[in-house]
Design goal:
Layout: E1 12-13, E2 16-17, E3 25-27, H1 34-46, E4 60-63, H2 68-77, E5 81-84, H3 89-96, E6 112-113, H4 135-139, E7 142-143, E8 164-169, H5 171-179, E9 189-196, H6 213-223, H7 235-241, H8 258-261, H9 272-275, H10 293-308, H11 312-327, H12 346-357, H13 364-371, H14 373-382, H15 389-398, H16 404-411, H17 417-424, H18 426-430, E10 433-434, H19 435-452, E11 464-468, E12 477-478, E13 481-486, H20 490-493, H21 496-506, E14 510-517, H22 519-522, E15 543-549, H23 568-575, E16 584-590, H24 598-619, E17 630-635, H25 637-670, H26 674-682, H27 702-713, H28 716-720, E18 726-729, E19 735-740, H29 751-761, H30 765-773, E20 777-780, H31 782-789, E21 797-804, E22 814-819, E23 844-846, E24 852-854, H32 856-861, E25 867-869, E26 874-882, E27 885-887, H33 902-915, H34 922-931, H35 939-942, E28 944-952, E29 966-976, E30 981-985, H36 987-1009, H37 1019-1028, H38 1042-1050, H39 1072-1101, H40 1109-1113, H41 1134-1170
Parallel strand pairs: 3-4, 4-8, 13-16, 19-21
Antiparallel strand pairs: 1-2, 5-9, 6-7, 8-9, 10-12, 11-13, 14-15, 15-16, 17-30, 18-30, 19-22, 20-29, 21-29, 23-24, 25-29, 26-27, 26-28
Helix pairs in contact: 6-12, 10-11, 10-13, 13-14, 14-15, 19-21, 24-25, 24-36, 25-27, 25-36, 27-36, 39-41
Organism: Aspergillus flavus (strain ATCC 200026 / FGSC A1120 / IAM 13836 / NRRL 3357 / JCM 12722 / SRRC 167)
Keywords: Membrane, Metal-binding, Nucleotidyltransferase, Nucleus, Transferase, Transmembrane, Transmembrane helix
GO biological process, one term: DNA repair
């Protein structure tokens, strides 16, 4: 830097550097918290810096900005327009001044369009403020070529140097403070630019306008022009009025016209992706022809203008808006509707307002693509195949070309071969390719692929072909044809693209090969590493051919009347007819199956897991936010069960696929190579081939062992936790039961009864009266009432009124009991005990645990005489009050587990037992207290005994009402409520699963990258290798059994000729050690399973009326019932429950691996033996190798 920014002196004191010699400094609040921003400003002020809060005054800008484009964006968002100091002008001129410099035709020299790269908005033409006479002024800002942008001329104190500013990383300040001197700026400069005037906009005149809607719209558009924020008066005022980041500044409000305000029609219902503010296009669908297609076409033109003017931010912003509008299922009726869509702001709304007001449905900014002479030429050059936006601008501004004729006449030799072909077939490449023609091209290429690989058969299929691109998206016409060819055998796809292109060229289908990439074949079918050596060419990581296609079949009959005066060669040329078929662009891409197998499956499952977790988190209710579990659905229980079942099916499918790919990669890692086999044979040992083997780990590298172990460890969470990632929760409603008279009057009552009523029933008397009078209560017969409320978990009903035959019951009724009361899991579940309080003693069932429980079946048998006991909500009773406690005869047992001293609790239990007698009076109680010897000192002096008339009834049925009053039930009145069953997910478990999935993807990618040659995946691979290159250790010992094979290594001796061993049963193929391990583990698992089943059967029997098999079977599978709940556990944590419930799956998985290993050994031995067997009149079958190598040579 040559201006005074680089001449900052290194003045400093003992406490740090002094910034007094620095120009005005502005601190960008972006990415800075309020505390950090305050500390930075205090640090600058304490060191005599010239700190400003008006960015227009600053020449040095500090911030946490790392990219030049972002720096320009931040400056523009604050009203500072800049142009980058160009240091490459001279280099570009020198580079292009070669021997093939084009000679432009004599045309008028035009100044280059000065384009600002970044924009948070879509620039002034999006506001609709450009007139037809000022179109050019908005698209370019003339700048003479002779202006120097070199730094040596940038700074001279005032003048031009005063317009230069620099955006510097905040680390510069830290370095200065740490070194106690002003360090050079150069290493920390992110963006160096010159301030320029803001582009001219349509002046805000005060001329009179008509009162039509279009004029009002134009005035509204003028008001929406961007204006810089007001400058605060002090640094503290900025902290008060400005957010820490400019990205949080609220957007400008859309200005509505009078006609819009008159619209009263409601907006259509918003789609779910709009409600959830989903911005990503991959999470929503869009039709091929959306309702707002004409408006989208206008936005596409504006986006193309942004592309031609190198405005990358504008291109990205318009792409986001277009994708959002394309997915919207309704036709826009007013601009304000656009503001509800994610990714659409006031600019898009203003453009739609202009589109709506125009007679022909166009936007002035979009029309510039066709009307503006500069943009029209740039667009024409851009449509040349092989020419991008920068090259198109180079043609126009540097080479001074104005049309395709100029390109051909003055610059043909300077074009690349691809660009020459693009110019030659310019019109033909712009034509759309209909779908039927795409299908015909795909069939021809597929046929030639199988012609050049005639023996490439896998499961009866050859090379597979998939058409992608616009055809796959459903377009009627595609710009080009994109095809992907693949095969499961990697040897088939190697150099396949070369053979296909050669075959097609021989028949005349391909006229030009634009590009031919052999990257994958040259890498021996290995994939690129993550962010490979050339991160800018990920598309070139596959074999591909970019070709020009033309159908060679046409009517080429000779011209019957050639010119008579032409020579023979000319006459022959005249007879040949030109091919009239259009030229098409076709891309043939080869994807090896190895790159689209395990890695793609694992990565796809990882993407689905992340996507499902994001969707679940977005749907989670705010009230249920928890890292352990969150609710994603609450409502109908049947729907919740279907959701849960669907999720578990999906989870099991994904888990099975992922574990299968992991198992395959583990087998690939443990597969030995020929080099490994020769090495261990030379040392008198052997390896397993074609079967999963832990013994092969000894020949694996440490990288393979680490990957193998990670694949094993990351499989455990899928066995143990994956099923518990989503689960359902059942909601049971507690309810109060009230007995009422036949005419059912529910009126007002005294305050004591009303308070007890609300406490016991859960609703006050007024609410129940309103439901009764409004006929909101459903009338049920006695049978239906017993069936509805005799459920273990009541989900859809609450308050119950029993209409009795007793007309003496006064308002508001009598208390019968509480159903489904909240109790501990360990307590006996008796949810409808109130049903069995009648005189019939056989309504209860005696259980094995010595407890009794009300049986719904027994109540239904006695439904005709069904009666219940009831008591008033409030009654007289003796109350005993002491220091810190009070109780009656009905609730004294509640103090048994209170925090009172042990002696006090024991005394209360003794006194409560005395009060249970309904005939005791206050005097009797006082006499009893004085006559007893209590454990608590001076216990009798602490007590106050009195009679109260406001004691509420209790929901405990341990005490009988004396004398009991029975009330016969006639029918019921039931309150129906919505169900609240829930589907929940565990963010903690999902996070563990995603992390393990990601580790598996990385391990699989590393497995693919490991380059090992001549691997023995199958027995056929080994036989093929040993036939070509015999093993010296086993030479001459072709057919020996397992026992004799081991002796070859332990005691080498000459092998005598003998007959082959006799055929044996399959179980002899498995070693004794493996059989012993597998059988032992099976016996252990069966024993444990039998023991757990026995304990469960005995435990459930304690809560069943009988322990018959039919009764236990009637409990069903996956049904939540009180009888099958786990009780008396130390914890009911979700993770602990998930681990406990999935332990059997881990055991079954271990059994699967052992049995799979045994079966694999048997099949491998059978396959190996089958290679020596002959059928009558035929050779043995072909080898089954990993490369599908067919051979008919018998084994000798």
């Amino acid at each position: 830097m040559s201006d005074n920014l680089s001449d900052i002196s290194s003045l400093h004191d003992g406490h740090g550097p002094s910034f007094s010699s620095c120009p005005a400094i502005f601190v960008l609040p972006t990415h800075l918290g309020l505390e950090t921003l305050h500390q930075v400003e205090e640090s600058l002020v304490s060191r005599d810096a010239s700190l400003t809060y008006d960015i227009s005054e600053a020449r040095l800008i500090l911030g946490k900005i790392g990219q030049k484009k972002r720096a320009a964006l931040e400056l523009r968002s604050r009203g500072v327009w800049t142009e980058d100091l160009d240091h490459s002008a001279s280099k570009t001129t020198a580079k292009r001044g070669g021997n093939h410099e084009p000679v432009p035709r004599p045309v008028e020299v035009v100044t280059e369009v000065d384009v600002v790269d970044l924009s948070t908005e879509t620039e002034s033409e999006e506001d609709g403020v450009r007139s037809k006479h000022s179109t050019g002024n908005h698209l370019k800002r003339p700048r003479p070529r002779s202006v120097s942008t070199d730094r040596s001329s940038a700074g001279s104190g005032s003048g031009e140097g005063a317009d230069i500013l620099r955006v510097v990383r905040l680390e510069w300040l830290d370095s200065c403070v740490e070194s106690k001197e002003l360090v050079p700026l150069d290493p920390f400069v992110v963006y160096e630019a010159r301030k320029v005037e803001r582009p001219a906009t349509k002046p805000n005149g005060t001329e009179a306008v008509a009162s039509q809607a279009s004029d009002i719209l134009q005035r509204a558009k003028k008001d929406t022009l961007f204006k810089p924020p007001p400058t605060p008066s002090s640094r503290f005022s900025r902290r008060t009025h400005e957010a820490p980041s400019s990205q949080h500044r609220p957007p400008k409000l859309y200005r509505q016209t009078t006609s819009e305000n008159e619209e009263t029609a409601p907006l259509p219902p918003a789609p779910d992706w709009v409600k959830n503010h989903i911005l990503y296009a991959c999470m929503r669908s869009a039709p091929l022809h959306p309702p707002n297609e004409r408006f989208i076409n206008q936005l596409v033109k504006i986006r193309r203008i942004r592309e031609l003017t190198l405005d990358e931010i504008g291109v990205r912003a318009y792409s986001t808006s277009i994708a959002s509008i394309a997915a919207y299922p309704y036709e826009f009726r007013r601009p304000s509707e656009i503001l509800t869509l994610p990714g659409c702001d006031t600019k898009i709304a203003n453009l739609f307002a202009e589109y709506q007001q125009s007679e022909d449905g166009t936007i002035e900014a979009a029309a510039a693509l066709d009307t503006d002479p500069v943009l029209r030429v740039l667009h024409e050059f851009y449509n040349i195949w092989g020419v991008g936006a920068k090259t198109a601008r180079d043609f126009y501004y540097y080479r001074q070309w104005r049309d395709l004729d100029d390109v051909v006449e003055h610059g043909w030799n300077s074009l690349s071969r691809v660009q020459q072909i693009g110019v030659k077939y310019y019109d033909e490449f712009l034509q759309g390719i209909p779908r039927h023609e795409v299908e015909d091209i795909a069939k021809i290429i597929h046929r030639h692929a199988n012609l050049v690989r005639p023996d490439a058969r896998y499961d009866g299929r050859g090379v597979e072909c998939i058409v992608v691109g616009g055809y796959r998206r459903g377009k009627e016409a595609s710009g080009d044809v994109d095809l992907v060819l693949s095969h499961r055998d990697e040897s088939v796809t190697k150099n396949l693209v070369v053979d296909i292109v050669g075959s097609l060229e021989s028949e005349g289908w391909i006229t030009h090969t634009l590009a031919l990439h052999m990257t994958t074949s040259n890498r021996d079918q290995q994939t690129l590493p993550y962010k490979g050596d050339d991160t800018g060419k990920h598309f070139d990581s596959l074999d591909k051919a970019l070709v020009v296609w033309q159908d060679p079949n046409f009517d080429d009959d000779a011209d019957p009347t050639p010119s008579s005066d032409a020579n023979a060669e000319e006459q022959s040329r005249q007879k040949r007819k030109r091919n009239p078929n259009p030229h098409r662009r076709v891309d043939i891409i080869i994807s090896p199956w190895r790159t689209v197998g395990c890695a793609i499956l694992a990565a796809s499952i990882l993407f689905l897991n992340i996507l499902l977790t994001i969707i679940a988190a977005s749907r989670a209710q705010q009230s249920s936010r928890s890292f352990e579990a969150e609710t994603i659905f609450e409502g109908n229980c049947k729907k919740a069960k279907r959701w849960s079942t669907g999720f578990h099916i999906l989870i099991n499918v994904l888990g099975t696929i992922l574990l299968g790919t992991s198992n395959y990669c583990m087998q690939c890692l443990s597969a030995p190579s020929r080099k490994d086999v020769d090495h261990v044979h030379a040392h008198g040992k052997w390896l397993d081939i074609g079967t999963p083997s832990v013994a092969n780990l000894r020949v694996m590298s440490w990288v393979q062992i680490i990957i193998w172990c990670l694949l094993v460890l990351t499989s455990l969470p899928f066995h143990i936790l994956y099923n518990a990632a989503v689960f359902s929760a059942l909601s049971s409603n507690a309810y109060g039961v009230v007995a009422v008279s036949p005419d059912g009057p529910i009126g007002s009552t005294n305050s004591t009864t009303s308070a007890c009523y609300e406490d016991l029933v859960g609703k006050d008397v007024v609410q129940v009266q309103a439901m009764y009078q409004g006929k909101e209560l459903e009338s049920l017969s006695k049978e239906d009432c017993i069936k509805a409320y005799g459920a273990a978990f009541l989900t859809n009903r609450r308050t119950l009124l029993l209409v009795t035959n007793n007309s003496s019951i006064s308002s508001p009724g009598l208390f019968v009991g509480v159903g489904s009361p909240p109790t501990s899991v360990d307590d006996n579940q008796n949810p409808f005990d109130w049903m069995c309080t009648g005189p019939d003693t056989d309504l209860y069932g005696d259980f094995g645990s010595g407890t009794s429980q009300c049986l719904q079946s027994a109540v239904l048998k006695h439904v005709n005489g069904w009666s219940v006991t009831a008591e008033p909500f409030a009654s007289n009773d003796i109350v005993v009050a002491g220091t810190g406690f009070a109780f009656t005869r009905q609730n004294y047992s509640d103090l048994r587990y209170s925090s009172l001293p042990q002696s006090t609790r024991a005394d209360i239990m003794d006194l409560g037992a005395f009060l249970e007698s309904p005939f005791n009076t206050v005097n009797d109680t006082l006499g009893f207290i004085q006559s007893q010897s209590w454990q608590t000192q001076r216990f009798e002096s602490q007590l106050n005994v009195y009679m109260s008339d406001s004691v509420c009834a209790t929901d405990s049925r341990t005490l009988s009402v004396s004398p009991p009053q029975y009330y016969s039930v006639d029918h019921c009145l039931s309150e129906k409520v919505e169900e609240h069953c829930r589907v929940m997910y565990s963010p903690a478990i999902c996070l563990v699963v995603i992390l393990c999935n990601a580790v598996k993807v990385i391990c699989i990618m590393f497995t693919i990258r490991i380059r090992r040659k001549e691997l023995f995946f199958t027995v056929g691979d080994a036989i093929t290798s040993f036939m070509k290159y015999p093993d010296r250790t086993t030479l001459g010992r072709s057919w020996v059994d397992q026992k004799e094979a081991k002796s070859v290594f332990t005691k080498p001796r000459p092998m005598k000729s003998r007959t082959l061993p006799p055929r044996r049963r399959w179980h002899y193929a498995v070693g004794r050690r493996r059989w012993a391990l597998s059988v032992t583990w099976c016996i252990v698992c069966l024993t444990c399973g039998a023991a757990v089943t026995t304990f469960a059967y005995l435990g459930v029997g304690e809560y069943l009326p009988n322990t018959s098999i039919s009764t236990v079977w009637s409990l069903g599978f996956s049904e939540a019932r009180p009888e099958t709940m786990l009780r008396y556990l130390t914890t009911y944590n979700l993770l602990a429950m998930a681990l406990l419930s999935n332990v059997p799956q881990v055991i079954l998985s271990s059994l699967y691996y052992l049995i799979n290993s045994i079966l694999t050994c048997m099949l491998a031995s059978a396959e190996y033996t089958s290679y020596s067997l002959y059928s009558t009149g035929s050779y043995r079958r072909a080898f089954s190798t990993s490369e599908s190598i067919n051979t008919t040579q018998p084994v000798l």
